[in-house]
Amino acid sequence: MKMQLEDAAAVLNVLCPMHVILSDDGTVLHSGATLQKLCHGRTLDGSQFFKVFDLRRPRDMRSIADLRRAAGQKLHLQLREAPHTGLKGVAVPWAHGAVVNLSFGISILDAVRDHALTSADFAATDMTVEMLYLVEAKSAAMEASRKLNQRLQGARIAAEEQAFTDTLTGLKNRRALAHVLRRLSSGPTGFALMHLDLDFFKAVNDTLGHPAGDHVLQEVARILVEETRDSDTVSRVGGDEFVLVLPGRTEPARLDAIAHRIITRLQQPIPFEGQVCRISGSIGTSLSDHYDPPDPDRMMADADLALYASKRQGRARHSFFKPGDRAGAT
């Protein structure tokens, strides 16, 4: 009997590593290595089959005699210990007991995950091995696709950000400004539009060169960002032209204070490579409350008219648009 068991075990270990050889009283005489792995690495030898496995179907099977009578039928079992892995099986009579060969059925992927199984845990001819290779290949392909999509998403975001950003100053550009104005014009919140043009900027470029001019523009951008809120939009729309959009700000006194604070800071000397750059700024403002509904193009044009009114007054001034400015321009 011992030689017969050893011979059977040697064959079954290779052909079906998820098997149990049972005695006539249901004692496990031998179990395959993969099945032991499912039971936390311990051998099942000497255990009672019906204490290790819960036989769900066919019902009312409580003995080896019942198993032998069900030879060839599909068995539905579950491990009694967590994670209660579901199994399929088939029994064949052996000596006075039985041999039960087990598999995972459609729960194979859960079992591989729960018990860290590899292809070495299955017979070489088991189609499960082929499926694991396919699943691994699919997982690798999906991971590669996920990483590619992340890179593409990052590149798209970067491209969109670049498309809306002035490369020299890091401010929003004219395209971004148009988007902001369209959104605010269709919403319920009033806003102010300030058009800023630098005074004497051409003299900086002519006397100190374009690197100095670029430095001045970057300093101006920094000042404008510092003097506005995160919810405001600061954009560069031309060589030395800037537009500020201030949502929720339509009080003339408050806006006049902001404009004069900016003008004061722009009049401070800007050092550059041992030289000093001197500029100032003129500002014109239009308010959305004066339009029904607000028209971004008209507001831009009217802020421009107010800006040139400031320049006519001697530069470094702030002016609000008035209907008379438009009449005078025509």
Could you give the topology of this structure?
Layout: H1 2-15, E1 19-22, E2 28-31, H2 33-38, H3 49-52, E3 53-57, H4 64-69, E4 75-79, E5 86-94, E6 97-103, H5 108-115, H6 127-163, H7 174-185, E7 191-199, H8 201-208, H9 210-226, E8 233-236, E9 241-247, H10 252-266, E10 270-272, E11 275-277, E12 280-287, H11 296-312, E13 318-320, H12 323-329
Parallel strand pairs: 12-13
Antiparallel strand pairs: 1-2, 1-6, 3-4, 4-5, 5-6, 7-9, 7-12, 8-9, 10-11
Helix pairs in contact: 8-9
Describe this structure in words.
InterPro entries: DGC-Regulatory_Protein, GGDEF_dom, HNOB_dom_associated_sf, Nucleotide_cyclase, Rev_trsase/Diguanyl_cyclase. This is Diguanylate cyclase (GGDEF) domain-containing protein. It comes from Lutimaribacter saemankumensis. Pfam families: GGDEF. This protein has 330 residues and is an alpha+beta fold. It has three domains: 2-125, 2-Layer Sandwich (Beta-Lactamase); 127-163; 174-329, Alpha-Beta Plaits. It is built from twelve helices and 13 strands. The termini are far apart.
CATH class of the largest domain: Alpha Beta
Under CATH, the homologous superfamily of the largest domain reads: Reverse transcriptase/Diguanylate cyclase domain
Structural class: alpha+beta
How much of the sequence lies in strands comes to 15-25%
The oligomeric state of the chains shown is single chain
Work out the helicity level. Answer: 40-55%
Which features would summarize this protein structure in a list?
six-stranded antiparallel sheet; 22% strand; alpha+beta; 12 helices; five-stranded mixed sheet; DGC-Regulatory_Protein; 46% helix; Beta-Lactamase
